[in-house]
Amino acid sequence: MLAAVASRTSPTDPLSALEVVERPRPEVPDGWVRVRVEAASLNHHDLWSLRGVGLRDEDLPVVLGCDGAGVDEQGRDVVVHGVVTTPGWTGDDTLDPGRSLLSERYDGTLAEEVVVPARNVVPRPPGLSAEHAACLPTAWLTAYRMLRLSGAEQGGTVLVQGAGGGVATALVALGRATGRRVWVTSRSEEKRRRALDLGAHAALAPGERVPERVDAVMETVGEATWAHSLRSLRPGGTVVVAGATSGPAPSAELQRVFFLGLRVVGTTMGTRDELEHLVGLLAATGVRPVVDRVLPLADVGEGLAAMAAGELFGKVVVRPGG
Ligand SMILES: NC(=O)c1ccc[n+]([C@@H]2O[C@H](COP(=O)([O-])OP(=O)(O)OC[C@H]3O[C@@H](n4cnc5c(N)ncnc54)[C@H](OP(=O)(O)O)[C@@H]3O)[C@@H](O)[C@H]2O)c1
Questions:
Q1: Are 243 and 269 in contact (CB under 8 A)?
Q2: pLDDT tens digits, residue range 19-57?
Q3: Residue 115 · residue 29 · CB < 8 Å
Q4: What proportion of the chain, given as a percentage, has pLDDT over 90?
Q5: What gap in Å lies between CA 42 and CA 146, rounded to an integer?
Q6: Band of the pLDDT at 199, cuts 50, 70, 90?
Q7: What is the whole-number distance in angstroms between the Cα of residue 149 and the centre of ligand 1?
Q8: 2-135+289-319 is classed in which CATH architecture?
Q9: Which one of 71, 118, 181, 294 has the fewest CB atoms closer than 10 angstroms to its CB?
Q10: Domain 139-266 indexed as CATH 3.40.50.720
Q11: pTM of the predicted model, to two decimals?
């Protein structure tokens, strides 16, 4: 089967480490299921993997991809949950110390087939396309959980940093659909305009003063926006952190954190049950992911290059079947 693979890693030139090659059809261990992948989506995780973040030499080669949707061997439409927990783990999937994301210890979804534990497939309802469903398990699930952890309920105000990203566009769409007031920042005027079209109530340039302090900030950009995130919070507000695209080591600004009683909450992905709720929410509301482009697997490098250059608005979907 055809697959997008990291066969080596390169911290400085991640795309040079990408190969789209034929791989043997995967075996199916007891208790796992085979899914024919109709659509997968790209994440920054794929770029981090090609850079060598979270992968050791002995893990290579590995099939990339955390997100997928397709058909199982019983012919059921499914969405693949990307967090693989230790057998017997019963707590929150994301807090299992032995958890891994697809494409770390186990081959990922950027292939014609993927095998996953049976609990890692969630039914896909009619009306939710494979292309849209493939956007949910990483970026959208992370956004869904970020909003739940934000402490900003219906009517509360949320600031989303870096409006064009896969997580950020999910935050805008879900934040709006769940009754929050959503403000965004983006480096690009065009992306600010598109965020307003998507439902944001206001769009600001990076670092611009917010009209009033917000209840929560959704942070995935990191160093470039961290100071602005803390400055924009009301006393007692919450910054939820799920990424650090521009760098992981801003000044912590601890005086501001303790003096204003701010909460800093980290999160990664979400649980299988949260993915099932998210799928249900999309089915019920008609909210759908923003798809920047759809590519055949052979052109996956084009999507990763656009992501590395920060050129995307929304998700890149890949169709392994062409
Ligand atoms: N913890 C988790 O479970 C989880 C899940 C998904 C993603 N993540 C992480 O979250 C981050 C975003 O993921 P994504 O899939 O949304 O990525 P993406 O689609 O590539 O979006 C990244 C966004 O960050 C902004 N950005 C990038 N560099 C910037 C800079 N130097 N200054 C200001 N803004 C910058 C850009 O927004 P503008 O161009 O609009 O300014 C860009 O659209 C990644 O680091 C990823 O690894 C974590």
A1: no
A2: 999 999 999 999 999 999 999 999 999 999 999 999 999
A3: yes
A4: 98
A5: 20
A6: very high
A7: 19
A8: Alpha-Beta Complex (3.90)
A9: 118
A10: yes
A11: 0.97
The residue extents of the domains of the chain are: 2-135+289-319, 139-266
Could you tell which of 41, 44, 141 is best to mutate to test the pocket of ligand 1, judged by most ligand atoms within 8 Å of the CB?
A: 44
CB 3, CB 18: distance < 8 Å: no
Comparing CA positions, the residue from 225, 203, 138, 150 lying closest to residue 180 is 150
Q: Whose CA is nearest to atom 32 of ligand 1?
A: 224
- pLDDT tens column, 72-123: 999 999 999 999 999 999 999 999 999 999 999 999 999 999 999 999 999 9
So what's the pLDDT on residue 322? 73
Which residue, by CA, sits nearest to atom 12 of ligand 1? 220
Write out residues with Cβ below 6 Å of ligand 1: 43-45, 48, 138-139, 142, 162-168, 186-188, 191, 206, 220-221, 224-225, 242-246, 268-269, 307, 310, 312
Distance 28 CA to ligand 1 centre (A): 34
Cα separation, 6 vs 60, in Å, equals: 7
- The predicted-structure confidence for 275-311, as pLDDT tens digits, reads as follows 999 999 999 999 999 999 999 999 999 999 999 999 9
Written as six digits, the tokens of 292 are 């920047």
Instruction: Report the C-alpha gap between 69 and 279 in whole angstroms.
Output: 12
**Hey, whose CA ends up nearest to atom 33 of ligand 1?**
224
Average pLDDT, the chain: 97
